[in-house]
């Protein structure tokens, strides 16, 4: 299994969420054009930002991953120990059973590496919920996980697979030499069991993010047409939908922005591209993020910054209250400009 060089792994792992937030705030103070996110929400008549329901129950099972990607907002890698326990996984399923939340989104790290992954999938499906697996693709090539394409198909799981680009150079630059070839092989294995095939009902979503300090350049629809054409032509691979996402200025990507001298410029791009329409549809308004330790967050990005649900909302699975959580006030910060820039960005792709 091929992984990226560690990218100064020790350094990237010691930057806490609080330190990242302080650094972003310091950059904002140096930038007179910047301004805070709440002020932009006020101008868009969206302040305070509140949830509008609970539609997605997103479970981050931990930070263990077989890759160490340069853009990773989770700071995941092979040496990470954070991992959801069976007790917390069972608590999450009991909470889910008490609600009508229709979608379970399982993420990581590489969620398939967690020993409770298949339990979470089976139990969520038993409860009649749609399940999404956020897969890095290369994990499917490990002999221990060779059964997963068939398992996922049997459970009718939607596979949401990250792939920076449909050409090897851009993907390997971000993820490591040989990762693109392994990703293509994994996609072929998913195609072989029906994923991405018309009429199969097995959804295969590809997720792409820019390789650099810029926003997605083309519309999601235009990129999807291009990707479908080129992946079929070059590799005989089919997929259902393409999602484009914006790189969030946190964790390893924040570290890269700073080291490359792109931090202030990139943050200003996000601020300048603020889109009120995208802000109105941000994923935190309908998604609840559950941490590997059972703590609750408004989104996976807030989770990585250790910004728990606030303003009086429940903060742990053990005090879960769907009524309070479905209308909770969202905890925001400067990093939120990443979800509201241009066409917007979310776990479901562009927004506007």
Task: Give structural notes.
By secondary structure, this protein is α/β, with parallel strands linked by helices. The protein has one domain (9-26, 52-265, 284-338): Aldolase class I (TIM Barrel, Alpha-Beta Barrel), CATH 3.20.20.70. It is 37% helix and 10% strand. The protein is built from 15 helices and eight strands. Strands 6-5-4-3-2-1-7-8 form an eight-stranded mixed β-sheet. Helix 4 (86-97) packs parallel to helix 5 (117-126). The radius of gyration is 19 Å and the shape is globular. The two termini are 38 Å apart. The model is unreliable at 1-14 and 29-34 (pLDDT under 50).
| SSE run | HHHEHEHEHEHHEHEHHHEEHHH
Helical content class: 25-40%
User: Major sheet, described briefly?
Assistant: 8 strands, mixed
Q: What is the CATH level 1 assignment?
A: Alpha Beta
**How would you classify the helix and strand content by structural class?**
alpha/beta
- Strand line-up in the sheet with most strands: 6-5-4-3-2-1-7-8
The number of helical elements comes to: 15
Mean residue pLDDT: 89
């Amino acid at each position: 299994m091929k992984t990226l060089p560690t990218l100064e792994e020790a350094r990237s792992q010691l930057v806490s969420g609080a330190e990242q937030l302080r650094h972003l705030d310091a950059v904002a103070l140096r930038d007179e054009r910047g301004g805070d996110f709440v002020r932009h929400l006020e101008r868009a008549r969206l302040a305070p930002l509140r949830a509008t329901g609970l539609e997605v129950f997103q479970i981050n099972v931990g930070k263990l991953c077989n890759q160490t990607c340069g853009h990773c907002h989770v700071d995941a890698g092979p040496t990470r120990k954070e991992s959801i326990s069976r007790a917390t996984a069972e608590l999450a399923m009991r909470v889910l059973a008490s609600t009508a939340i229709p979608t379970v989104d399982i993420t990581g790290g590489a969620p398939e590496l967690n020993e409770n992954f298949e339990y979470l999938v089976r139990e969520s499906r038993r409860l009649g919920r749609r399940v999404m697996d956020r897969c890095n693709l290369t994990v499917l090539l490990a002999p221990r996980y060779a059964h997963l394409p068939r398992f996922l198909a049997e459970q009718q799981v939607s596979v949401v697979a990250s792939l920076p680009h449909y050409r090897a150079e851009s993907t390997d630059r971000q993820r490591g030499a040989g990762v693109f070839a392994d990703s293509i092989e994994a996609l072929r294995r998913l195609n072989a069991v029906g994923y991405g095939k018309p009429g199969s009902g097995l959804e295969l979503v590809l997720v792409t993010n820019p390789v650099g300090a810029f926003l997605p350049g083309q519309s999601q629809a235009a990129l999807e047409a291009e990707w479908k054409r080129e992946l079929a032509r070059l590799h005989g691979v089919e997929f259902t939908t393409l999602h484009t996402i914006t790189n969030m200025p946190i964790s390893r990507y924040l570290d890269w922005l700073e080291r490359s001298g792109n931090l202030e410029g990139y943050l200003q791009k996000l601020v300048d591209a603020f889109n009120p329409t995208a802000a109105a549809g941000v994923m935190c308004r309908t998604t609840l993020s559950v941490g590997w330790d059972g703590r609750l967050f408004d989104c996976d990005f807030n989770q990585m910054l250790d910004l728990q649900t606030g303003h009086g909302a429940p903060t742990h699975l053990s005090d879960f209250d769907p009524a309070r959580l479905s209308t909770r006030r969202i905890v925001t910060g400067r990093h939120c400009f990443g979800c509201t820039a241009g066409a917007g960005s979310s776990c479901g792709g562009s927004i506007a």
